[in-house]
Amino acid sequence: MAESGAGAGALGRAVRGVRGVPYGLTVLGYRLRSAARRAGRRLGRVTAWCGRVASWLGQLPGLRRCLPRSVRGRATLGATAVVAVALGAASVALVGLLDANLWENAESAAGQQATAVAALAAAGRFDPLPPPAHGADFYQVVGADGRVLAASPNLAGRPALSPKRPVRTGTERSTWDTGLPHGEHRQRVVEVTTGTPQGLVTVFAGTSLRDADAVDDTTTASLAVGVPLLLLTVALVTWRVTGRALGPVEAIRAEVAEITDRDLHRRVPVPASQDEIARLAATMNATLDRLEAAGARQRRFIADASHELRSPITVLRTQLEVALAHPDPALWTELVTGALEDTTRLQALAADLLLLARLDAAEPAPVTPVDLTELVRELAEARRGDPHPVAATTPPGPPVTVLANPLWLGRLVTNLLDNAQRYAETRVGLDLRVADGLAVLTVTDDGPGIPAADRERVFERFARLDDARSREEGGAGLGLAIARELAGCLGGRLTAEEAPRGARLVARLPLA
Question: Are 42 and 95 in contact (CB under 8 A)?
């Protein structure tokens, strides 16, 4: 009865030890650590292999020259490399998860076999022991002295699987890989130590990992074939898609390559995709529009400049020929005076053309704070004796200061006053005020005025209105064009606005 009670107590301790919560937590933690170690080993091998390949490639002197230079080739290579890395990581994770799951099943079967045999050993029932259960391949019972007390038929006559000896009462579970000569596959062994009437014994139960090995081999072979095919598919698809996406870019490049300075009317094709390439084509066409307009302005400017220069040169040549053909001292004064006037006109026209060329080239000019109030007063005072005096009005209080180049600002106001005095009948007005944080300079006259349809055309180079602004009244048609360019370079703007009578030109400049 005492032995029976002791056996029952040992059996209860074994069952509680195997099925207890601490045991379950221990097994769960072990499985997680085991799966992490296996995945880490595989990932480490892959990383080491990639490192060796990268080191080998880095030693190649012509590797950089071998890389594709086209966007299509680089995009294909980059997409294929990214997919290759992703597939490699996914393959390692897949094999690791499958392996961990199969190892868990093998360990569970071995654990159930060890638990059942430990329960029989705790009850003192060593003979006869049942054959291995389904899923388990063998078991072995080893006493405290290292003697094999019982074993499954396929381990009959073999020594103890482990030299480890039990040292305390209770149940202890451990798992390890062993290289048993039984079979051609690895074995998963579970160890359970429990107390029996004869003392402490250790039960070893194991199962084959042939399923895990088979799955590893099958999965590895499948990935070895499938991954390269998938990478090839990704490369081909990327190559085709990138080629289709870059087709419009190549068409734009080919069209731009054929456009010369004589074919600025041509435009690049705009795809109907409404994407970035379509916007690029639209921007390119807008740039070509500006180039064509700039070319047309340049040709028109050259033609007008040639025409304007030809007239005074022709007159000057005629006067010199007359003076040479009729060497009459009485006519020399009149001829020299006319030649001097034409020379002055040529000099002024050349100076205007040079200034326009500098403004077109956007050459920077030094700027300083300029007292616009004092400048307006000085220019008005200098024209006091003109046929049409300038009536200047400045705001009371502190002076109006702007940040500008003094020469350019003086030329701007001078051109506006020259234009007003050229076409005024009785008076010219010059008004300075401050509005909306800007210095507003207004020049008015009581002449024929500027029609609404021509308020922008008067700022074109060599532009003249048919009736009111003719060459006989002076000027080459560059004054207002230069004034608008100067206003733009000074950060402001010049406009022609409606007036009750005559012309009204308004320049707005930022304050200093």
Answer: yes
3-state secondary structure of 1: coil
Largest CA distance in the chain: 166
Using one digit for the tens of pLDDT, what is the confidence trace for 216-252? Answer: 788 888 888 888 899 899 889 988 888 888 788 888 8
CA distance 10 to 119: 8
C-alpha closest to that of 473 among 421, 415, 411: 421
User: If residue 188 lies in a helix (H) or strand (E), which one and from where to where?
Assistant: strand 187-196
Share above pLDDT 70 across residues of the chain, in percent, rounded to a whole number: 79
439: three-class secondary structure by DSSP: strand
Q: Which of 144, 137, 233 is nearest to 182 (CA)?
A: 137
Reference 503, options 441, 433, 434, 429; nearest CA is 429
pLDDT tens-digit map of 248-287: 888 888 888 888 777 777 888 888 877 788 888 888 888 8
- The CATH number of 368-510 is which of 1.25.40.10, 3.20.20.70, 3.30.390.50, 3.30.565.10? 3.30.565.10
- What six digits make up the tokens of 113? 């076999």
Q: Which amino acid is at 243?
A: G
Q: How far is CA 79 from CA 228, 231, 237, 289, 386, in A?
A: 14, 9, 10, 38, 79
Backbone angle region of 141, left / alpha / beta, with phi > 0 → left and psi within -120 to 50 → alpha: beta
CA 256, 258, 264, 270 torsion-angle sign: negative
